[in-house]
Amino acid sequence: SWWFCGALASSEPQNHHELVGRLLLLLSRRNRDRVLREMVVRQLEAVLSDEECVLYASQLVQATKWDAHDFNALARFLLRKALESVGFAHALYWQLQVSVAGGGEA
Q1: I want to staple 27 with a disulfide (CB 3.0 to 4.6 A). Which of 7, 31, 62, 63 is the partner?
Q2: Which of 27, 52, 48 is nearest to 39 (CA)?
Q3: What is the pTM of this model?
Q4: Local structure of residue 66 (DSSP, 8 states)
Q5: Average pLDDT, whole number, for the chain?
Q6: Which of 36, 42, 31 minimizes the C-alpha distance to 77?
Q7: Could you give the residue ranges of the DSSP H alpha helices within 26-63?
Q8: What is the pLDDT, as a whole number, of residue 69?
Q9: Are 87 and 51 in contact (CB under 8 A)?
Q10: Phi/psi class of residue 103: alpha, beta or left (left: φ > 0; alpha: ψ in -120 to 50)?
Q11: pLDDT tens-digit series, residues 73-92
């Protein structure tokens, strides 16, 4: 959790996209703490629009590789967004296809 605080508090994000970028970094392999990842997903839910979810679909799918549990906060968020937005559902489907076809290295 110290890394979360340091990443967000090191300097105030200059804009919305910088904040989203920092949050996505917190979903990388460096952070496997379940509680912290849940906090990050809650923040992403608060700041990402449906259109932005489409834009960041690739990064969100890649972040699922680092979750220890199958039905975690990120997976629930992705499923919820896919149910709410057909555009995101399509983007998620194709990103998952690419990830599976590439052995998860997409």
Answers
A1: 63
A2: 27
A3: 0.80
A4: G
A5: 86
A6: 42
A7: 34-47, 50-55, 57-63
A8: 81
A9: yes
A10: left
A11: 999 999 999 999 999 999 99
Angle at alpha carbon of residue 18, lines to 14 and 20, rounded to 5°: 135
Q: In which residue are the tokens 């559902």 written?
A: 89
Query: What is the C-alpha separation between 52 and 43, in angstroms, rounded?
Result: 14
Percent of the chain with pLDDT over 90: 63
How does pLDDT run across 50-75, given as a tens digit for each residue?
999 999 999 999 999 988 888 899 99
Confidence tier at 106 by pLDDT (50, 70, 90): very low
85/49 Cα distance (integer angstroms): 10
> Are residues 36 and 67 in contact, defined by beta-carbon separation less than 8 angstroms?
no
The answer to whether residues 27 and 74 touch, using CB atoms and an 8 Å cutoff, is yes
Task: Quickly count: other Cβ atoms within 10 Å of residue 27's Cβ.
Answer: 24
Contact at 8 Å (CB) between 40 and 8? no
Tokens linked to 80: 């919820």
